[in-house]
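#help-structures
NK: newbie question, is this the right format to request a structure? protein is Phosphoserine aminotransferase
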Amino acid sequence: RHFNFCAGPAAMPAPVLERARQEMLDYQGRGLSVMEMSHRSRDYMAIAEQAEHDLRDLLSIPNNYRVLFTQGGATQQFAALPYNLLGQGGTANFVHTGIWGSKAVKEARHLFGEAGVAASSEPNGHTAVPRPEEIRLSPDAAYLHYTANETIGGLEFDYLLGNTRGGMARPDGVEVPVVCDMSSSILSGPLDVSRFGILYAGAQKNIGPAGLVVVIVRDDLLELARADMPSLFSYRALAEAASMINTPATYSWYLAGLVFQWLRQDVGGLDAMQAINARKASKLYAAIDASDFYSNPIAGINRSRMNVPFMLADARLDEAFLAESEQAGLLNLKGHRSVGGMRASLYNAVPEAAVDALVDFMADFERRNG
Ligand code: PLP
């Protein structure tokens, strides 16, 4: 297997794929694949419950939070969130730090006409996140949404926005819930879930295969939904049906469960994962900073640990860099089409050896072309 730096769908932990391969045709002597099981069967229910149990354990999710395993991608949540939280009026507020956040704003406006921008990093070209004192909720804010890690720009918050009750105060002192898109950073390290009203993540980076979204929602927020929403969007309905209103993404959910087991047993939990991720990111940023041949524009404290965009000083070399890196077994280093250049995604499943190989390749490429 080659080293895969894809931003999503991302690399999967090799031991998880190996276990899935072993169980693919015959799950633990049952004579069928998990893919072929009824989601209501005893065996599948056990798989689903174990996955939730392991996720709760990894993130120390408090009892008053529900965990939903739903579908439609993180993008669907851009619509589901205002439906679930605007039942008592008000507007969605956003901290805008890049492309994913702007898509969330656009969807809220498309559906409900208004959305407030409580702070934005647009003036600095999304190279540093707004500081806490710059965030101003509108007087009618019903919730605040932000993107913990902007996957395309490689910009990550260095702090949590929510207070110890998972809220933030409006100018009139009323506290509203803080909602976070954690698609590209969930499980990269330990997290205080109580600092959020809701957090959610598309699976295809640190959780498992695409087709699944994990939503973690504080249970009092299940009462704030609009009456006119599609029933499949309803967090309350999903919570009441244990995420099985309809057929869930059963195989992705099962593989997510194997990833959670891998994190717990093989990696040793999220503190250990965080330490590995910190080493990986700092090695790559150090290599970029040590050379004039490569660059990354993001302010030090907001450099993403998961997605490292970098430019070559001479963009005419981009194609050669991509072709040669692929030949060297370093896959998917092309930057997002809106940004250009390169991007190395260093999600949990990317081993440290992959970063070592990339850094060596970069030095060699510079020697030959610099
Ligand atoms: N939010 C973030 C931070 C992302 O990185 C992505 C996808 O890359 C999305 C949302 C959209 O996810 P999906 O493709 O699951 O809709």
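mod (FA): yep, format's fine, and the tokens are attached above. The mean pLDDT is 97.
NK: thank you!
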